[in-house]
Amino acid sequence: MLKKIILAAIALSLSACSSIYMPVVPNTPMLSNQGEFSAGAHLSLKGNFNVNGAYAVGDHFAVIGNAAYLNSEKYSKDLEHSLYEIGGGYFRNFGPDNNRILEVYAGVGSGKNIKTTRTYDNREMLLATDVQHARYNKTFLQVNYSSKKIDTIRLFGTQLKLNYGMAWRLSYAETKDFTINNVAHVNEDNIFIEPVFFTRMVLSDEFQLQYTTGSNIGLKSRKFLNAGYSIFTIGAVLNIGKKPKVK
After folding, report:
1. Residue 160's pLDDT band (boundaries 50, 70, 90)?
2. Transmembrane region positions (predicted)?
3. What pTM value is reported for the model?
4. Domain 2-240 has CATH 3.20.10.10
């Protein structure tokens, strides 16, 4: 009996190791002019699928939308997570060739996290099942700096065209309707700093492959709403509607 109690306690503590909050891949559309549309899709090694969209409603103003979804089922833990964001902001091209881009966006979002943790005795008998369910709201402020200047590298005898960028995010999240095994739990809040860096392989003016990596830093000490996940994804980005340069 004591062994079962200890195993159940360990399972409950492990269920708190992973955060309720998972950062989305930031929207980095690298817009140039009114009427341009950007869309991206990204996938992490954990199976977290992210999509981004942005539309330039003016020569310096844009609206953005982000979404992420993860559904992982394993022997001892199931995890379902979803997050949706909308926002808007300002972009500006500058530099000698007008190929540097500064973007500032702000917005709101809503997420849901359902985690089921199971404890077994010698991986045969189910001893305990813990279900953690939470919804949360968030606001964010994001600053992007990127460049459309093309750098080239040779890899395996092939010339690859690359450009780079970074995004700094400040996010505030707060849980609501947080329960553990259908018992109401005290809600938590946290402030996250999310620096993200990306590299794009330029296949054409409209289509690029993107590698994204970043970290997540929680400014408050929280048990459940903490900085438990980072960003590591591979994806693709499409930009259409860009006006050609006037020579």
Report:
1. confident
2. none
3. 0.86
4. no
